[in-house]
UniProtKB/TrEMBL annotation:
It comes from Prevotella herbatica. Keywords: Oxidoreductase. It comes from the Bacteria. Residues 172-297 form the Alcohol dehydrogenase-like C-terminal domain. The keyword Oxidoreductase applies. This is Sorbitol dehydrogenase. Coiled coil: none annotated.
Length: 338
C-alpha cells in the first residue's frame, strides 16, 4: 500500500509498505484524510529532536472502519467514520498513575516517536478508535489538533467572567479560542496575521491584537481596565511569546503553555513570585477533549473550509510541504487525501 515518508530533512517520497494485519482486539481503518501538523513541518526541516528518520508522518486522521477483529466490543461497525487517538501510555509512570495518560512519560505519538498513518490502511487497538458519526472523514482530520487546544483550556481551568488571551491562532490556538469562548470567557486572540485574527473573531474571540502592528501591553491594559488578563494560553512556542505571557497575565493569574521553545528563554522570575502565578504545561489531549471537539463539530458552526489551506494526494505531499515551509504563517492545515 502507498505511504508518505519523510526520508531526510527536506526529502519526502511515496513508498510502498505492507498492508497491516488485523489482530485480536484491533480495528483496521481505511485512511481517507491525514493532516500535516507543526511537528511534521519541524521533522521535514530537520528540527524535531524526537524523530528518527526515515519516518511516516501522520496523526491527524479522518478514517473509515474497514474490518473489526475478534474481541472488539460492540459499538464499532464497518463503514463508521472515525478519528484516532494517536498517543500511547504505559500505565505505570507517574502521569499514568495519576490518570493523566496524555502526559505519559513514555508516550509515543504516531508520526513522531513511531511511524504514523499517512498511508492507505492502519490497524490500532480498539481503545484508540474514536467514533465520529455525523462528521465527514475530511472534518475528522481536524479533531486531534483542535482537541489539543481544548485540553489547554481545561488545564487553565477557564471559567466565565475571565479575560483569556490566546497567543497564536493556528489550528491548536483556534481550538483554545473556541473552547474558552464556549466556557463564557472574553477571549483576546493575538497573532501576527490579520487573516488568522479575523477567523479567530468569527469563531469566538471578543477582541483581536496584531502583535506586529499594535502595542500588545497597551491593548491588553485597555481591554482589561488595567488588570491584565486572567489567563494566557501560549500556542506558539517562541521565547518572545513565552515572556509575553508572564508579562501580560494579571496578578494571581494563570499561564498555560502548549508550545515549547526550541531555544532557552530568559524570564524575569520575580514576576512568578510577585504575581503569585500558576504556570502550567499542556500536552496532547484526553478522550474527554476529543469528545468535546466532536460535539462542537456536530453543531455545524465551525468554518471547516477556512481551516483547510490545501488538499492534495500522496504524490503532491512533497510540494505541499515545501510550500508550507516557505510561508508557514499562512497555513492552517494541509490535508493529504488517500
Amino acid at each position: 500500500m502507498k505511504a508518505v515518508q519523510i526520508v531526510n530533512p527536506h526529502e519526502m517520497r511515496v513508498v510502498d509498505i505492507d498492508k497491516p494485519v488485523l489482530g485480536v482486539g484491533e480495528v483496521m481503518v481505511k485512511i481517507e484524510y491525514v493532516g500535516f501538523c507543526g511537528s511534521d513541518l519541524n521533522t521535514f526541516l530537520g528540527r524535531n529532536p524526537m524523530v528518527n528518520l526515515p519516518i511516516i508522518p501522520g496523526h491527524e486522521v479522518g478514517a473509515v472502519i474497514e474490518k473489526i477483529g475478534e474481541g472488539v466490543p460492540e459499538g464499532f461497525t464497518k463503514g463508521m467514520n472515525v478519528t484516532l487517538n494517536p498517543y500511547t501510555n504505559c500505565g505505570k509512570c507517574a502521569s499514568c498513575r495519576n490518570g493523566r495518560v496524555n502526559a505519559c512519560e513514555h508516550n509515543e505519538t504516531l508520526g513522531v516517536q513511531r511511524n504514523g498513518v499517512m498511508c492507505q490502511y492502519a490497524v490500532l487497538p480498539w481503545q484508540k478508535i474514536i467514533p465520529a458519526e455525523g462528521i465527514s472523514s475530511r472534518t475528522c482530520a481536524l479533531i486531534e489538533p483542535m482537541s489539543v487546544g481544548f485540553h489547554a483550556v481545561s488545564r487553565a481551568q477557564v471559567i466565565d467572567n475571565e479575560f483569556v488571551m490566546v497567543v497564536g491562532c493556528g489550528m491548536v490556538g483556534l481550538g483554545a479560542v473556541i473552547r474558552a469562548s464556549q466556557r463564557g470567557a472574553s477571549v483576546i486572540a493575538v497573532d501576527i496575521d490579520d487573516e488568522k485574527l479575523a477567523l479567530a473573531k468569527r469563531i469566538g474571540a471578543a477582541y483581536t491584537v496584531n502583535s506586529m502592528t499594535e502595542n500588545v501591553h497597551e491593548r491588553i491594559q485597555s481591554i482589561t481596565g488595567g488588570f491584565g488578563v486572567d489567563v494566557v494560553i501560549e500556542a506558539v512556542g517562541s521565547p518572545a511569546t513565552y515572556v509575553m505571557a508572564v508579562e501580560e497575565v494579571s496578578f494571581t493569574g494563570r499561564v498555560t503553555y502548549i508550545g515549547y521553545s526550541k531555544t532557552e528563554v530568559s524570564f524575569q522570575t520575580k514576576l512568578f513570585v510577585q504575581k503569585e502565578l500558576d504556570i502550567r504545561g499542556s500536552r496532547n489531549a484526553l478522550p474527554a477533549d476529543f469528545r468535546a471537539v466532536i460535539n462542537y463539530l456536530k453543531a455545524g458552526n465551525c468554518p471547516v473550509d477556512e481551516l483547510i489551506s490545501n488538499e492534495t494526494g500522496p504524490d503532491g505531499a512533497f510540494d505541499a510541504m515545501k510550500e508550507w515551509a516557505s510561508n508557514p504563517g499562512k497555513v492552517f492545515r494541509i490535508l493529504v487525501k488517500f
